[in-house]
Amino acid sequence: MTTSTEPDLDRVAERAAAVARAFAATEPRARAAALVAVADALDRNAAELIAIAMRETGLTAPRLIGEVRRTSNQLRLFAEAIVDGGYLDARIDAADPEYVIGPRPDVRRVLEPVGPVLNFAASNFPFAFSVAGGDSAAALAAGCPVVVKAHSGHLELSRRTAEVVIEALDGAGMPDGVFQLIEGQQDGVDLLKDDRIRAGAFTGSTHVGRLLADIAATRPRPIPFYGELGSVNPVYATPGAVVAEPELLQGFLASVAGSAGQLCTKPGFLFVPAGAELGELAEAAAAVGEHRLLNPGIGRAFEERRSAVLGADGVTVLAEGEVRVDDDGQRFVTPTVVEVSVEQLRAQPDALLEESFGPLSVIVRYSDAAALPDLHRELFPGNLTSTVHAADSEAGELGDLVEALAETSGRVLFGGWPTGVSVTAAMQHGGPFPATTTDATSVGTAAITRFLRGVAYQNAPAALLPEALRDDNPWGVPQRRSEAGRSSEWGSLTGIH
């Protein structure tokens, strides 16, 4: 598989569009079996794929072993969701001549696939957010053909993973052309502009994500674009937490340094009371071994951000960290942690508030806990996560802060650390801008609905209804039914009369 040329792009788009209807019509159990087949194939080829990923990304074997496991089991989870059928949100309103608002026709609504999806793979998760990762899995689960734009940071891995996925889908009897790979920045942009692409997904930088989102929004036929961009994920520790959690700072440092801080959920800020003891943070940071950043471009960007933070007025350096550059331009880094006051943070937003993609975080000392909710809304309008560490006895004092965090974040944690996103039905991995371009989730089974659209069928002959809306319900999916004659009882059933 080679980098696509312009004529190839037309063929890619044509294949995806041509197969869209057939793939959308696949029976849920068959599509679920195909996802499981892909999961099994990834597990069978894990050793080969992990070796390639280690060489291309510098990530460690334990990290990548866990990521493959996460990726394959995410596919299995989505297979369960397909078979269950609840994600289709099938609704049936029976015809009702006595309907209180006026005679009601037979109306049936279900979520249907949007069509071909273009997925821009991420650099920092070469499995979980790349070729066979969450966006691809969600789109396939929804019944949408997928075209993945490979990330330049792990091209060999992308090609091999795509071969594994395509072979598994073919073996499971899925239509030819349901999964394809392209390469090259310009090819990704050009395909995003193609009218045959009906949705886009992206995980990466705010700058690139905004450019792509603007392209998707300004096409002659605009399409939804789900970009996960960036987040600083603030953490707030109360006075009680500092006393009750002796391992607070160690947990913080581990979360900052894990995978060299190249995680979208890394805690970029830790707020602690003005008088809190920081213990042996510097010594603990110095004990962390160096870790290679993903590629020279990310390394250069981290070096620039680190210099800006270290050069900000009034910054106290708790752990300076190091950056080593090898002959290939790769950066090898250790954690950098600095301290500022709330006033210094407010005074230098350009230097301090931007995300640092790497092992760098800022500890902020506050003197007025009551001011934290307004401060959070002011400084952090959109986050993937926000976290509170507090003693049990302080729960009654946290209402305003938690409300502020919920307004501005996709996931609010109580204790623990935001790195490590559980792949589960209830997970929300998204948030208000600038965390994402569209506030949806890219993790968990709710991610499937991004690639579906509602269609209502009114007075349709039974033979022409989608399977999920038929009275005999051949797919066995949940159906929300509103029978005739019930509208006259509205209100009385709720106990409000």
Q: Give the termini separation.
A: 67 Å
| Count of runs of 4 or more consecutive helical residues | 16
Strand content: 15-25%
Shape: globular
- Sheet with most strands: 7 strands, mixed
Query: Low-confidence spans: pLDDT under 50, at least 5 residues?
Result: none
Task: Describe it.
The protein folds into two domains: 6-229 and 441-452, 3-Layer(aba) Sandwich (Aldehyde Dehydrogenase, Chain A, domain 1), CATH 3.40.605; 235-414, Aldehyde Dehydrogenase, Chain A, domain 2 (3-Layer(aba) Sandwich). The chain contains 16 helices and 19 strands. It has helices at 6-24, 28-44, 46-57, 61-84, 134-142, 155-171, 185-192, 206-217, 239-244, 248-257, 281-286, 296-310, 342-347, 349-352, 372-379, 399-408, and strands at 90-93, 107-113, 117-120, 146-149, 179-182, 199-203, 225-228, 235-237, 269-273, 291-292, 316-319, 323-325, 331-333, 336-341, 360-366, 383-389, 409-414, 452-458, 479-482. Helix 2 (28-44) packs across helix 6 and helix 15 runs parallel beside helix 16. The longest helix has 24 residues, at 61-84. The protein is globular, with a radius of gyration of 25 Å. 46% of the residues are buried. The mean pLDDT is 95. Its EC number is 1.2.1.4.
